[in-house]
Design brief:
The protein is an alpha/beta fold. The chain has three domains: about 130 residues, Conserved hypothetical protein from pyrococcus furiosus pfu- 392566-001, ParB domain, CATH 3.90.1530; about 50 residues, Arc Repressor Mutant, subunit A; about 45 residues, no CATH class. Helix content is about 45%, strand content about 15%. The strands form three sheets. The protein has a five-stranded mixed sheet with strand order 3-7-5-6-4. Strands 1-2 form a two-stranded antiparallel sheet. A two-stranded antiparallel sheet has the order 8-9. Helix 1 packs across helix 2, helix 1 crosses helix 11 and helix 3 packs antiparallel against helix 4. The longest helix is centred in the middle third of the chain and has 15 residues. The protein is globular, with a radius of gyration of 22 Å. The two termini are about 35 Å apart.
Length: about 300
Amino acid sequence: MSLGRGLGSLIPTKTIKQENTEVLVETGEMVLQVLVDQIEANPDQPRKDFSRLAMEELINSIRERGIIQPLILVSKETLYGDSARQTEINENIKYQIIAGERRWRAAKILELKTVPAIVRSFSNNEKLEISLLENIQRQDLNPMERAWAYQRLIDEFNLTQEQVSERLGKARATVANTLRLLILPEIIQSAIAEGRITESHAKALLSLDDEEKQKMFLKRILGLGLTVRETEKAIMGKKTKPATQFQSEFLEQEKLLAVALEAKISIAKQNKSIKIIIEAGDEQGLEKIIKKITKQV
C-alpha cells in the first residue's frame, strides 16, 4: 500500500447517495453510522491541543450542516490486514480513529449519537504512518507538534528528510527548518507549543549558538513583547524601540478574532491608535487568513 503521495486516496473527500446508501466516490466504500461511544482516540495522534476555542468554527459548521466528511476508523479487533473493509458495524467492539479526531471530538461536544465513518483494516505501522501524515497535512498543528511528527516519521519509518518532504509535498528546507526547533531548550519549545512565541521568533533564537543566550532572549521577548523584527535586531546588537504595551482590556476581542481567523491575535494601544497583530506562522497560514478576511471560498 502506498502511503506517500497516494495518501489522498485514503482520506475521504466526497460522498454520494446510491440506493439510499451513502458511498465514497473515490472507492465506492459504504459510509457507516458509528456510535460516538464506540470510538476511541488514536494514541499516535500528533496533535495535543484540542481546545474548545480552537475548535469553535468546526463545531458551528457541524451544528449547521452535520459532518460532511466521514471519519476513517479501524476496528481494534482487526488491526492487521491489507485490504479488508467493513460493511456493517459491530456494536460490541471499539473502533480507533485513523483520520478525523477533531470531527469526533466536536460530535461529542454537540452530543451527537453517531458519526459517518468508513472502517478499514491496517497494520500497526500503516495505521501510524497514515495518522501522522493525515494530521500533518490536514490539521493546523502548532510548530512543535509538526516537528515532533516529522521526527517520528524519520525515527519510526527510517525516512530521510527528503523522503518526508516528498510525502508531505513540502520543500526539504521547510522540513529541515521545522526539525531544527527540536534542538532548542525545552523551555523555548514549550513557549512555541503554547503560542507564547512564534516559529519566526524561534528561528531568530536558533541563530544563537549558546543555550543560555537563547533562554535570556526568550525572557526578553516575553517580558517586553518583542516582535520578530525587534528580536532579530536585539540579537544583532541593535537598539529596539520600546515594545508596544498590550492591554488586558482587549482579551475578549482577541479571542473573537482568534476564533474567526484561526490565528494568534494581539491587540494593543499605540499612542492614540489601536494596533492589531495577526500571526500567520507560515505562508500557508497567511494564505488561509487572507481567504478568511476576503471571504474567499
